[in-house]
From TrEMBL:
GO function terms (MF aspect): nucleic acid binding; RNA-DNA hybrid ribonuclease activity
Organism listed in the record: Psophocarpus tetragonolobus
Protein name, entry field: RNase H type-1 domain-containing protein
Pfam families in UniProt: RVT_3 (PF13456)
Domain RNase H type-1: 67-189
Length: 224
């Protein structure tokens, strides 16, 4: 039996014109290309491989974007943490968060917990129109497509959807790691926290996040 999945109002949309690099048409498209990270493509002559250019984009007006990530310790087995950053439609920093996770065994579980914490924190601050991004495709797919009860994390996915029901609008997007780099410092910072501590919140950008946040704000483009 399949548990609940994200409702259709949460579905990811990206402008096909922007995905193909046709910016002049993309500006007039009804699709909101800024719901996901920026993507353009370029053919490499006779080479069938396509070069992608990606960059972080702000969410639509009156939305905030939550970028989430996880980190695992290389020294301690099952020591993992979650972190993320919330920014508004102008790309301005709203809040950051870090948290040490308890007995977390897999990347997918840690990513799901990062998303759960990110949505909880953001809604608690009064924001109800959310774009949630993760660079874990399988994690986003679990939320958007649902999963069977035999899967290890049906309760966790269901709890995310229950919390998300308090939002007025929400979508979940997979993005490339390059455009999710601002979360890296927050996730790794969580590894330094004590196990029983509450989620650490940042009302101002911490020093370890400034470089990546400025790169996103400047619209730095990455090739892949």
């Amino acid at each position: 039996m399949c548990v609940s999945k994200a409702p259709k109002r949460s579905s990811s949309r990206i402008c096909i014109h922007w995905a193909n690099g046709n910016y002049m048409y993309g500006e007039d498209s009804l699709h909101l290309h800024s719901w996901s990270d920026g993507i353009s493509t370029k053919l490499q002559g006779n080479n069938p491989n396509t070069m992608r250019f990606v960059w972080w984009t702000a969410p639509p007006h009156d939305f905030v974007k939550i970028n989430c990530d996880e980190a695992f310790s290389t020294c301690h087995r099952n020591k993992a943490s979650a972190g993320g950053v919330v920014r508004d439609w102008e790309g301005k920093f709203v809040i950051g968060f870090s948290h040490l996770l308890n007995n977390c065994e897999t990347v997918v579980e840690a990513e799901l917990l990062a998303i759960k914490i990110g949505i909880q924190v953001t809604i608690s601050k009064g924001f109800k129109r959310l774009v949630v991004e993760s660079d874990s495709y399988s994690t986003v797919q679990l939320i958007n497509d649902g999963l069977y009860t035999c899967h290890p994390y049906p309760k966790l996915v269901s709890s995310i959807l229950d919390i998300a029901n308090r939002a007025d609008a929400i979508c979940y997007n997979h993005v490339f790691r390059e455009t999710n780099s601002a979360t890296d410092g927050f996730a790794k910072h969580g590894l330094s926290l004590s196990l029983n501590s509450d989620v650490q919140l940042f009302s101002c950008p911490p020093t370890f996040s400034l470089r990546s946040l400025r790169a996103d704000e400047a619209g730095v483009i990455y090739s892949r």
